Task: inverse folding
């Protein structure tokens, strides 16, 4: 769009070169071109494929958290949870995830009771897994071992379900 038609509306000081021309022209151009719109934070999906389930009983529960202190229990601010029916291979998607550093914990809740069942010495009776396929040794991995970055591209994680019993 040209600014020349606006000069006739603004009056003679603008048309004849007064000092307000640069400032007024900038204000008009900014308003007309929409340069005053605020940037919108870009979000991306996180797609998870869980493999190695031993049965199609119950639910697969997934927790996505940016909080190291909340991992792997999914407590605290910013945590997101999903649950889908179990199958040989399960696909889950966390839509619209803001850029940041996150970790995922998954549980095969075979009896659909909403918790991780345990046996002797606190060993898990149900399957579990973590983003980046982080290994477990005498307990769940640390956040830093399972954490990954979400930037401006979709993220895909493959998590292998593990069973202790």
Result:
């Amino acid at each position: 769009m040209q600014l020349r038609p606006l000069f006739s509306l603004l009056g003679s000081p603008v048309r004849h070169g007064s000092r307000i021309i640069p400032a007024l022209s900038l204000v008009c151009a900014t308003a007309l071109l929409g340069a005053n719109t605020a940037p919108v934070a870009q979000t991306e999906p996180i797609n998870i494929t869980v493999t190695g389930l031993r049965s199609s009983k119950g639910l697969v529960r997934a927790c996505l958290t940016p909080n190291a202190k909340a991992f792997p229990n999914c407590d605290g601010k910013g945590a997101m949870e999903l649950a889908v029916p179990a199958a040989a291979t399960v696909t889950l998607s966390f839509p619209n995830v803001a850029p940041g550093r996150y970790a995922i914990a998954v549980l095969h809740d075979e009896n659909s009771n909403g918790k991780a069942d345990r046996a002797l010495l606190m060993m898990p009776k149900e399957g579990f897994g973590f983003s980046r396929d982080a290994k477990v040794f005498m307990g769940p991995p640390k956040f830093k071992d399972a954490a990954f970055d979400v930037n401006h591209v979709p993220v895909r994680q493959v998590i292998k379900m593990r069973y202790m019993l």
User: Anything to note?
Assistant: The radius of gyration is 27 Å. The longest strand covers residues 100-109.
